[in-house]
């Protein structure tokens, strides 16, 4: 069976077009997945309730335990200073 040069050319052209469409679809899917992952990482914190508590003003006379926990969580060196200050004032 003999295939003409023009038929062969059309066959390869169609094959390249099909590959480009498939490759473009795969790239778009990968970009969409990456964008959604980026948005997820930028999104709200897993510890949103803890962050809200941290940002609220605290009354130093009413919630010493909470203040100590927040200091330990966000500034480990400050917790030692707090305990040292408490011991000095006793």
TrEMBL record:
<dbReference type="GO" id="GO:0003677">
    <property type="term" value="F:DNA binding"/>
</dbReference>
<dbReference type="InterPro" id="IPR009057">
    <property type="entry name" value="Homeodomain-like_sf"/>
</dbReference>
<dbReference type="InterPro" id="IPR001356">
    <property type="entry name" value="HD"/>
</dbReference>
<keyword id="KW-0371">Homeobox</keyword>
<keyword id="KW-0238">DNA-binding</keyword>
<feature type="compositionally biased region" description="Basic and acidic residues">
    <location>
        <begin position="32"/>
        <end position="45"/>
    </location>
</feature>
<protein>
    <submittedName>
        <fullName>Homeobox protein Nkx-6.1-like</fullName>
    </submittedName>
</protein>
<feature type="region of interest" description="Disordered">
    <location>
        <begin position="19"/>
        <end position="90"/>
    </location>
</feature>
<dbReference type="Pfam" id="PF00046">
    <property type="entry name" value="Homeodomain"/>
</dbReference>
<dbReference type="GO" id="GO:0005634">
    <property type="term" value="C:nucleus"/>
</dbReference>
<feature type="DNA-binding region" description="Homeobox">
    <location>
        <begin position="3"/>
        <end position="23"/>
    </location>
</feature>
<feature type="domain" description="Homeobox">
    <location>
        <begin position="1"/>
        <end position="22"/>
    </location>
</feature>
<keyword id="KW-0539">Nucleus</keyword>
């Amino acid at each position: 069976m003999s295939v003409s040069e023009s038929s062969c050319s059309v066959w390869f052209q169609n094959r390249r077009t099909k590959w480009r469409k498939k490759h473009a679809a795969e790239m778009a899917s990968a970009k969409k997945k990456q964008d959604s992952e980026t948005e997820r990482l930028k999104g709200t914190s897993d510890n949103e309730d803890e962050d809200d508590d941290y940002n609220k003003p605290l009354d130093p006379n009413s919630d010493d335990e909470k203040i100590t926990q927040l200091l330990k969580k966000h500034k480990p060196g400050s917790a030692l200073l707090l305990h040292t200050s408490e011991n000095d004032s006793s």
